Amino acid sequence: MPLAYPATAADWRHLARQRLPRFLFDYIDGGASAEHTLAANVQDFAALQLRQRVMLDVSQVDSRCQLAGQDCAMPLALAPVGLAGMMARRGEAQAARAAAAAGVPFTLSTVGICPIDEVRAAAGTPPWFQLYMLRDRGAVQALLHKAWAAGCRTLVFTVDLPTTGPRQRDLRNGMAHSGPRAGLLRASQILARPGWVRRVALAGKPLTFGNLTEQVPGGHDLGAFKAWVDAQFDASVTWRDIAWLRQQWQGRLLIKGVLDAEDARAAVASGADGLIVSNHGGRQLDSVPSTVRALPAIVQAVGRQTELLLDGGVRSGVDMFKALALGAHGVLIGRPWVWALAGGGEAGVGSLLALWQREFTVAMMLAGVTRVQDIRQQQLAAL
Ligand code: FNR
Description:
The protein has 15 helices and 10 strands. It is an alpha/beta fold. It has one domain: Aldolase class I (TIM Barrel, Alpha-Beta Barrel), CATH 3.20.20. The protein has an 8-stranded parallel β-sheet with strand order 3-10-9-8-7-6-5-4. Strand 7 (252-258), helix 12 and strand 8 (274-277) form a beta-alpha-beta unit. Helix 4 (91-102) packs parallel to helix 5 (116-123). The structure holds ligand FNR. Ligand FNR is lined by residues 27-28, 41, 79-82, 109, 111, 130, 158, 256, 278, 280-281, 283, 311-314, 333-335.
């Protein structure tokens, strides 16, 4: 039976699986090694319980808030996801348009397909820009310059990828290999999805890293781009480099990929405006704690005055509420928006965000809270 009215992130995942070549679906869906952390991110949200409160006046509930100084319809932003433009025609532009319509920020990855100007023009508002530190600091400066010129004022600097985590599904599907054998394997998976070939491979060109076209020597082949980026990840970066980054960037700086209280203190001391508690969606070091589990110690270490966002395993408006009850100011979502994009394009992302907005508002009402800033630990049920 076709799924006429997708209602959950899981429904969109189901549709994405039907529409994408296998190696692309698994690239989104998978995590590092045995995927323990990937599973824990979701399960630890599910294990948290909320207090139901009644007979409080919840006739006026307001889900609006500010994230990185920006007015938002709810405490949620779309996380940076590399290659999202492979999942739907000009994918980042479509998703950014849906995010703008829903009143939430969209974050464009360094390794997105659509260039920043295209995303900005599509959405009518600048995205947040995510940066990986590259060995070529001139290339970093050029990227930051382009982001600033496009109107971006929030930089998300990702610190948990000195190298790419071991993603076994990508190995198995030939996504992580080059050469004719891997090419044939991917081609067989592509041929099984002719709709994707029509919609994305043919109508969605160019499928290159749109923000890096000036930096990458040698043509417009995605393989060449990937090889260049892999060689460019700078594993020597330390907190001292934040001082350099601060000189290059006059806007807000959010540091993404902190999971440890000690690192959280160092990040605040380095001059970050906020932190994103993240284990990269379980795609880097397997068997690190879920973000839900890591958050309380980080809140305690840096205090509520530091803007703390969290991502990893957020799968509903109720999970958003739980993250805030644990002390986050907001959440980012990765896989859910990409599944919705693959399954239904801009309308799919819009539908997912509208459902979550409603679910989050209902959670506020039934927990007896009328303002986002009043969501507190006392709304969690003691286990
Ligand atoms: C990511 N993530 C990521 N993060 C980042 O800073 N830059 C990037 O380019 C990417 N690329 C990327 C690709 C894919 C396919 C996934 C699933 C994730 C991590 C992402 O921003 C976010 O931290 C996680 O996706 C959050 O976990 P959930 O919401 O996917 O469970």
